[in-house]
Description:
The protein is of the alpha/beta class. It has 15 helices and 23 strands.
Amino acid sequence: MSLASPPTHQFKSYIGGEWHDPGEGGRSVPNLNPATGETLGEVILASREDTRRAIELAHEAFEQWRAVPSPRRGDYLFRVVRLLEARREELARALTMEEGKVITEARGEVQKAINAVEFAAGEGRRLGGHTVDSELPNNFCYTLRQPLGVVGIITPWNFPVAIPLWKMAPCLVCGNTIVFKPATNTPWTACLIMEVLHEAGLPPGVVNMVLGPGCAVGDEIVTNPKIRAISFTGSTGVGMDINRRGAERGIKIQCEMGGKNPIIVMEDADLDLAVEATVQGAFGSTGQRCTATSRAIVVDEVADSFVDKLVARTRKLVVGNGLNAHSDLGPSVDQSQLETVLDYIEIGKKEGCKLLLGGQRLQDAEHSSGFFVEPTIFDQVRPTHRLALEEIFGPVLSIIRVKDFDQAIEVANCVEFGLSSSLYTRDINRVFRYLDRIETGITHVNSPTMGGEAHMPFGGLKNTGLGGREQGGEAIEFYTEIKSVYIDYTGEKRTSKVY
């Protein structure tokens, strides 16, 4: 099944090493290009029964897969790296066409996925525990890591290549099998990932993908007793529900959820650099990333200058089809997300925030077929406004003015989320006070709020993250259990004598 050349495809689930056809009773929905309205293909929705079948096959494949030595499991992933490199442009173009982000960002996402898989592949030769001295003579103590079993992986539409692969790669190298539920509005990239894993030679049943709604596919993954862990990225409401239901079953849960990320601009900041970082963070990926810059917290002393520069720079951004080389930001992913963004713009106006730029849907001839909204900036936003507290997931930036560093930190920390943050300053003492006090899992100094590296842990605090970090060596912690081993080689009966 090749999915490399639109316009018409059927996107199906991948179960037990084969593309799954649910038969004539299966429902379908169109997969739309959010920039043009073009139908890219038809998504064949799987059922709860299909999901159970995928889980059963993953369960059956587990014992065989866990018996493969971890360096050999890493070899499979190195093959995946080479295949991703060979198909990077195909993946990037599919990503842009169904999700909307501009092609340069899509290429960057594919490269991030390659980096994450490469790092995890190397972990196959480092997977292990540690040895310690026993308190008894002629006794040997050590720990080892063992896989969990079948893991459910549930991912969103905004990074449909990178997020699935940065979850799958460490999961697989640890010896687990997978049932993967991607977002149904990014099925093309999900199917391409399955093609790559299939071509890499992964045994049937080791990775299974089920395309379908959360009420059937997602619910079965969360409740099925053969699922021993779930890694989820998505909304806070859904993540909290998954965490609660998983806790009732006593399984491991990992959730990466919302963000309301601040960039703090101090009076001694390089304003040109701070403005560029704010524009990148707020409007890159159309604001549809969990690490997007949604709040600019600026001290009064430089606020007017910062705002003038920011508005002037933002006016230069080109909104358009992500496949066009001149486009800086693309559309919202679908009609629902567009309406959410427009609703929040109206909320900002009603709250009395000062609209400096944007605020409208683009509906001229070039943009009329897509879900485009202007990059939008509000000034005079208060920390208590909904615009400053709630995740929008669109190209909307709130500027909050503060009197000093202490107030900036207080405002930055006053939201329920704690994923990413950034500080622009030249004062090294202030940098370390910021690092001590900021309530975010990812912190940047003089760089944008978004971005990360494959060998560094990714995740947030408060209502952003639960259950341990993704990526880097810390990812192995979630996908394994520790076993402690005691070996007595005295050949003698244990006595109560103290040595």
